[in-house]
Amino acid sequence: MTPEEIEACVDATAAALKLPLAAEHRPGVLHYFGIAASMADLLNAHVLDLTDEPAPVFVPVSPLLPLPPGDAP
Fold first, then answer.
1. How many structural domains does the chain have?
2. Measured between alpha carbons, how far is residue 47 from residues 1, 30, 36 in Å?
3. With the C-alpha atoms ordered 66, 57, 42, 45, is the resulting torsion angle positive or negative?
4. Given this model, what pLDDT does residue 67 score?
5. How many CB atoms lie within 10 A of CB 38?
């Protein structure tokens, strides 16, 4: 999304939710919305096949801890 699209989306969402957005919070909201939009773009770029299935279990791993040997992706 372009910066203008991000601003428009944040403004429209805040208005639809009747959520006041303080001027001092706006830069942070726009920044983190842009990060979320970038993550969504990465996911949307991956094309799924009709035979793809979700993982049966999601096990999060702390990014600060190394993976045990043999568990590398």
1. 1
2. 19, 28, 19
3. positive
4. 63
5. 10
pLDDT tens-place string over residues 12-60? 999 999 999 999 999 999 999 999 999 999 989 988 899 988 878 878 7
Contact residues for 11 (Cβ-Cβ < 8 A; gap 6+) = none
Residue 73 lies in a domain: no
Comparing 2-6, 8-12, 33-37, 69-73, which segment has the lowest mean pLDDT?
69-73
- What's the CA gap between 28 and 48, in Å, rounded? 33
Alpha helices in the chain (DSSP H): 3-16, 26-44
* Residue 34 placed within a domain: yes
DSSP-derived 3-state class of residue 7: helix
